[in-house]
Amino acid sequence: xxxxxLLSQAERRIARRDAEILLAAAWQxxxxxxxxxxxxxxxxxxxxxxxxxxxxxxxxEPVAYLLGRREFWSLDFEVTPAVLVPRPETELLVERVLQxxxxxxxxxxxxxxxxxxxxxxxxxxxxxxSVLGSDRSGDALAVARRNGARLVADRIEWLAGDxxxxxxxxxxxxxxSNPPYIAADDPALxxxxxxxxxxEALTPGGDGMSALATLINGAPGHLVPGGWLxxxxxxxxxxxxxDALVARGFTHVTSHRDLAGHERVxxxxxxx
Length: 272
Prior knowledge:
Elements: H1 3-10, H2 16-27, H3 31-36, H4 44-58, H5 63-67, E1 69-72, E2 75-78, H6 91-100, E3 107-111, H7 117-125, E4 130-135, H8 138-151, E5 157-160, E6 172-177, H9 210-218, E7 223-232, H10 238-248, E8 251-257, E9 263-269
Parallel strand pairs: 3-4, 3-6, 4-5, 6-7
Antiparallel strand pairs: 1-2, 7-9, 8-9
Helix pairs in contact: 1-2, 2-4, 6-7, 9-10
C-alpha cells in the first residue's frame, strides 16, 4: 500500500494534516518528502507504527504527545503527558515580557513552568537575564530541565514548589505565568486533546480564577519596585484580572489580544 492510500484511510478517523504528520514521523522523513513521494510503497513496520499512532489520535491524544515534541518560539520542545502542550497564543506572553524589559540584566521568574517553554524562550532571547522556572510537579520539572539542558545549556534555575513558595524572599524584575484558568465545568476540558493533558495544569477548579488570584495577591512580595507581572488567561477573564490588579495596587494595567482577537495576556506594574 502506498502512502496516499494509507493517508486516505486514516482521513476517515483523523484530520488529514495530523495523518500526514504522523506518517512522516513513523517513516522518519519530512512531511514535504512524504507528500512528494505519495505513490511510494510504505514498509510494513512504518504502516504498523502509523496505524497505532492514528488509533491513539482518534481517541483524542494530542499529536504533540504522539511525537514527543512541539514547536514553540521556533524551538523544538520535548513534551510528555506530564506537561501542557505549548500553544501559539502563549507566545504573546513571551512577546510582552520582551517588550516591557530591555536586554539589561534582569531577574525573571516563570511560575508553573511546565515544559519550560516560556522560561527557555526568554533566556534564549535575553542572555543577560537570570531566569528561574518553578513547578510543583516533579515530572513536569524533569521535562523542563531536559529542555533547558538541550536548548540553553542549563542557564535556567529550576525550583520545585507551588507558585511563590520556593522563591523565599527573592524579588524579580518580572514574574510571568500561564497558570490553570479554565473553569471546572467548562465542557472544553473533555474535548479533543485537553482530556489527555494534565488536569491540574488546565483548571484550578471553580470558576478558574483562583490560581490567577493567588499570583496577583502574592506578586508584590516578590517584585522589585517597577517590576512587572504578566499573566496568560482565558478569553473572558481580562476585565476581572484588570480589576483585581488595580485593586491590589498595580499600575499600567493592560490586556493584550492574541491573533484570534481574544484578550489573552494581562500585565501590571508594581509601583516604584
